[in-house]
Amino acid sequence: MRWLVYLYPKTWRKRYGNELIDVLKQTDTSLKTIIDLLIGIIDAWHMELNERYIFSYRISQILVAVTIVNAFIVLKLKPLGEVIEVEIFATIAVLIAMLSLFLAVVTLVVSIFKFGKEGLTLKPKLTKTSVGLMGAYGVFMVTFLVLIN
Amino acid sequence: MTKSKFSEPTLFILISLAEQNRHGYAIMEDIQKNYDVKLGPGTLYGAISRLEKAGYIIAIETQDRKKPYKLTGEGQIYLTEQIKEIQKITNIGMKRLGLV
Predict the structure, then answer these.
(1) Any bridge partners for residue A121, and if so which?
(2) Is B44's CB within 8 Å of A23's CB?
(3) Domain ranges of chain B
(4) Is B69 helix (H, G, I), strand (E, B) or coil?
(5) What is the CATH number of domain B3-96?
(6) Regions in chain B scoring below 70 on pLDDT
(7) ipTM score here?
(8) Cβ–Cβ of B40/A40 closer than 8 Å?
């Protein structure tokens, strides 16, 4: 059961890891304890992510990577023009993906302007929305790539 | 820190520390003995980390791996407010049930 402690965020583990291991040594191993630990892990990650700064350089790296992927896809689209015409779902997927990305960037920029440094954390709803939209972008882009292949 | 962020386990922990400084497992044992509630280690340390972050408890530095926790002045004020509120709710409930 000790291995579950390694699923906690690093900063949390550094502070409470040894103590938690000591307590676990004195606690009976049961399904209830495992579930309790799993809930604790989710809770700790939730707290950690709410406080952690998403460093702007990381975001810029992600945006550069996303732009390269988009450029690659657009280049691929030209020869696949006929396929795209047929594959209406692929077209819809890529449009939703691009729209999601655009909205994600807009909401993130608005969040940074509105909340300053805090806009780079997951605390403001706007940043959360932005991350959600980035997730939607990822999902629809993967769907698109699967469909065109 | 708003009240809604704290739950029953956090109150149990604060009450336990109001009596004396205790480390994690000792808090668990005290809660089980007094309220017949078995706190899981995940719940216990989740609550401890929240309370420490809020400044209501602090860990006492020792050579030992087991760090006892201590209730701070701020924690004492918070606990007093909470107890008073619970007391108020209990009184209303008792009156309405005709128990007093």
Answers:
(1) A53
(2) yes
(3) 3-96
(4) strand
(5) 1.10.10.10
(6) 1-6
(7) 0.81
(8) yes
Average of pLDDT values for A87-93? 78
The residues in B 17-56 lying below 8 A from A, measured between CB atoms, are 23-25, 28, 40-46, 48-50
Question: Shortest Cα distance from B44 to chain A (angstroms)?
Answer: 9
Nearest-5° angle of CA A128, CA A52, CA B75? 105
Question: Which residues make Cβ contacts (< 8 Å) with residue A59, sequence separation at least 6?
Answer: A108, A120
- Residue carrying structure tokens 């023009």: A81
pLDDT of residue A76: 67
Among A101, A65, A83, A99, which residue's Cα sits nearest to residue A145?
Answer: A83
User: Which residues from B are below 8 Å from A14, CB to CB?
Assistant: none
A41 vs B contacts (CB less than 8 Å): 42
Distance, in angstroms, between A57 CA and closest chain B CA?
28
Query: DSSP 3-state assignment of A89?
Result: helix
* CA nearest to A135, candidates A90, A103, A95, A89: A103
Q: Quick check: A61 pLDDT over 80?
A: no
Beta-carbon separation of B50 and A32 below 8 A: no
Cβ distance A43 to B46 under 8 Å? yes
